[in-house]
Amino acid sequence: MNILVTGANGQLGHEMQICAKNSNHKFVFTDVAEGYEKLDITNLDAIREKVKENDIQVIVNCAAYTNVDKAESDFDLANLLNNTAAGNLAQAMKEVEGTLIHVSTDYVFQGDKNIPCKEDWETNPLGVYGKTKLAGEKSIEATGCKHIIIRTAWLYSQWGKNFVKTMQNLTASHDSLKVVFDQVGTPTYAGDLAAVISHIIETNQLDKTGIYHFSNEGVCSWFDFAKIICELSGNTCDIQPCYSEEFPSPVKRPHFSVLDKSKLKQTFGFKVPYWTDSLKKCIAELAEAK
Ligand SMILES: NC(=O)C1=CN([C@@H]2O[C@H](COP(=O)(O)OP(=O)(O)OC[C@H]3O[C@@H](n4cnc5c(N)ncnc54)[C@H](OP(=O)(O)O)[C@@H]3O)[C@@H](O)[C@H]2O)C=CC1
Ligand SMILES: Cc1cn([C@H]2C[C@H](O)[C@@H](COP(=O)(O)OP(=O)(O)O[C@H]3O[C@@H](C)C(=O)[C@@H](O)[C@H]3O)O2)c(=O)[nH]c1=O
């Protein structure tokens, strides 16, 4: 199969490049950044051309607008990338009867129940990022293309910008920090997400259209996440729990967005690693990359 990866320079995109090394399929890695085959996913004709040129059967969309705070004052660009462009990719796959593998977020949920969110639950995003990601899901569905939408949460890796790297820097440079303990979810190592996407491709389960939830196993608050990042990084910092109101942000985030992964595990037969096991792996990679 010929597989097009968009947003290859992002966290998930980098991890897809690593997984692709063990595949016999042909991968075409694209981004708007230098060093990649150029593909701007806001341009439908450019997508069509790339699909035709490379006889693409599957697109893995790793491109998105992921700055949650900034999205509040940048609706047009967030919507263009997370909604319109997702629809473009779906349209291009519909035209060649291919499959779009797309990634969405726990932030489509309001997060006001303290039980794990299932795929068929009512959505009610609290901010622009979540709203545009939800609109993207709907735009994909509206094209009628074969699609696998994986909602994930709290993604981190050795690449790009993420909570693990932010906390490593902050706990190394501050004596004390406050981190919210009233937002509960599950971190996801981007390497594990790339592994599940690769598993779906390699086991040819691309016709199982639908929405699926994926994160690592377990549950924690951002405060707990910060504590263990600090400890595993060998830093000493007095991290104290605080309420969301105490940490200034232009956007409300869900209080409880733990994802129920039963559907994905049963459908695709994938064993999900526990969150601290994957965190240890990532911290070792970060130490090695220094
Ligand atoms: N990060 C997280 O915590 C979570 C992410 N997700 C979802 O997972 C997916 C992957 O996220 P992540 O790897 O963190 O994303 P990143 O922000 O790390 O990467 C996104 C990539 O898309 C590129 N990009 C931006 N605009 C375009 C464009 N017009 N055309 C093509 N590429 C473009 C970016 O380039 P540049 O950097 O130059 O803008 C970047 O390389 C996204 O769908 C995201 O919504 C879901 C839950 C949690
Ligand atoms: C840096 C910092 C953050 N926080 C809080 C802010 C926020 O509520 C929480 C996490 O901070 P972040 O900025 O990493 O959060 P955020 O960018 O909202 O992370 C989200 O990104 C998008 C793309 C997703 O899809 C979500 O799944 C989720 O990963 O921790 C503190 O309480 N203290 C701190 O010192």
TrEMBL record:
GO terms for molecular function: dTDP-4-dehydrorhamnose reductase activity. Its EC number is 1.1.1.133. Coiled coil: none annotated. Residues 1-286 form the RmlD-like substrate binding domain. It catalyses: dTDP-beta-L-rhamnose + NADP(+) = dTDP-4-dehydro-beta-L-rhamnose + NADPH + H(+). Pathway: Carbohydrate biosynthesis; dTDP-L-rhamnose biosynthesis. The keyword Oxidoreductase applies. Keywords: NADP, Oxidoreductase. Signal peptide: none annotated. InterPro entries: dTDP_dehydrorham_reduct, NAD(P)-bd_dom_sf, RmlD-like-bd. The keyword Cytoplasm does not apply. Belongs to the dTDP-4-dehydrorhamnose reductase family. Catalyzes the reduction of dTDP-6-deoxy-L-lyxo-4-hexulose to yield dTDP-L-rhamnose. This is dTDP-4-dehydrorhamnose reductase. The gene is rfbD.
